[in-house]
Design goal:
Number of helices: 19
Order of helices and strands: HHHHHHHHHHHHHEHHHEHHH
Shape: globular
Structural class: mainly alpha
Helix content: 55-70%
Low-confidence stretches: 1-16
Number of strands: 2
Distance between the termini: 78 Å
């Protein structure tokens, strides 16, 4: 009858649309997968959070004593100022009192993904932009630690993965992981992109490579790892005709897609800066005005040699030199241990950028911060030794790392 509402009973589960049941099942599976992964990784995340809190505590105990307060130290100095300013005003707005030497395009040396995250976070949260930037960096550092654990656990074992995360949290410039810098965001994107490569999720790996290429110039390392591994996998799949018939069409398309789209972010930014500068090599021109060029390692070798031939020698120069030398040695060991190709390509490109570049020498240790595959040989050795010895070595390393982090924040007057 008109106007009469009849109550209908829901259809039995067996009669509900199959598409709806499959969608619900996929959601439950994804949620269960994330939950299980967190349960597996929680020791690594807990240890990482503990050592980073210890490093911050040491700085907080002395912050504000005739110097900047805690918030300014972490989110209001050096590169952080540029990222926050770009997030608030964009690239075109002039920075008064800044960039007097580098010129009007100086801010284009800073890639756009991190400022975009800050801008989005500031629009959603009633917090100062600097605090939003710091919060994103700290959150990204936890995602990075989780991604590092996932990569190492996939290739080795849980103990080695936990120790690798701990080591990453106490490397010489680990304090940067708790600052409004791009290294935490970049490392998170890189680690999960490499994990996607290891698990053959090629489209995911390529999308993360695009974002990494929009985060730092060393995003080329992620792009290279994804594209080369995808190309090699495709080559192996199609090398033998009888094997090619067993390769599904979709994975082949995913491999080709990964090769093509992974470099898009990196190339897009270089193209845009070139357009703004009015020349194809505009980005390199911007970097040159910042004092950064590529000389194949001559500058790095000269500065390391000065450690042994000139006085006075500063602590930061010694640590930067030791970090570069250790990274080269650990890379050779990683090659000898036949580490996975994706990790080796990624680490090799990071080394090329850090060692081959000329400019601000102390930043080389920071540039190597995302190179977590180089820590795996040390983590494996510690995982195989007696627990008491491992605890003693790691405990001492945590204390030294915290002390050096305090030095970078409170004594060293330049960018870490």
């Amino acid at each position: 009858m008109p106007g009469l509402q009849t109550k209908t009973n829901p259809a039995p589960a067996s009669e509900r649309p199959a598409v709806s049941r499959r969608h619900h099942s996929r959601q439950e599976t994804a949620s269960s997968t994330v939950r299980n992964a967190l349960v597996l990784a929680w020791p690594a995340l807990a240890v990482y959070a503990m050592v980073r809190c210890m490093g911050l505590l040491v700085v907080a105990m002395r912050a504000g004593e005739d110097g900047p307060d805690w918030g300014t130290l972490l989110a209001g100095r050096f590169d952080s100022v540029y990222y926050v300013y770009i997030a608030e005003y964009g690239y075109a707005a002039p920075m008064e009192g800044m960039c007097q030497v580098q010129g009007e395009l100086c801010k284009y040396a800073f890639f756009p993904f991190y400022p975009s995250l800050i801008r989005g976070g500031s629009a959603a949260l009633p917090l100062p932009t600097g605090m939003v930037a710091l919060g994103i960096a700290v959150g990204a550092s936890l995602l990075a630690a989780w991604g590092i654990f996932a990569v190492v656990h996939r290739l080795y074992d849980r103990r080695t993965a936990v120790i690798t995360v701990l080591l990453w949290g106490i490397v010489p410039h680990a304090m940067v992981q708790s600052m409004a810098y791009t290294e935490p965001v970049f490392t998170a994107l890189a680690a999960w992109s490499l994990y996607a490569v290891l698990t053959l999720r090629w489209v995911t790996a390529a999308v993360l490579a695009i974002l990494a290429g929009l985060t730092r110039p060393s995003g080329a390392a992620v792009v290279a790892a994804v594209a080369i591994c995808a190309a090699w996998t495709l080559f192996k799949a199609l090398r033998e005709p009888e094997r090619a018939t067993r390769v599904p069409r979709t994975p082949v398309r995913a491999l080709i897609g990964a090769i093509l789209i992974a470099p898009l972010g990196w190339f897009a930014w270089f193209t845009w800066v070139g357009h703004r500068a009015g020349r194809w090599d505009g980005y390199f021109q911007v970097q040159e005005k910042w004092g950064s060029t590529f000389d194949g390692g001559s500058f790095t070798l000269h500065r390391i040699a000065e450690i042994f031939t000139k006085v006075p020698v500063t602590l930061d120069s010694v640590v930067a030199s030791a970090t570069v030398i250790s990274a080269l040695v650990l890379f050779v060991i990683a090659v000898q241990e036949r580490q996975h190709m994706a990790l080796l390509i990624y680490a090799a490109f990071l080394l090329l950028v850090a060692v081959g570049g000329a400019g601000y020498f102390q930043s080389k240790a920071r540039f190597l911060l995302p190179a977590f595959p180089l820590l795996i040989p040390v983590a494996r050795a510690l995982a195989q030794t007696r627990p008491k010895i491992a605890y003693t070595v790691l405990g001492a390393a945590v204390l030294v790392s915290s002390a050096y982090g305090s030095y970078l924040m409170l004594v060293w007057q330049f960018s870490p």
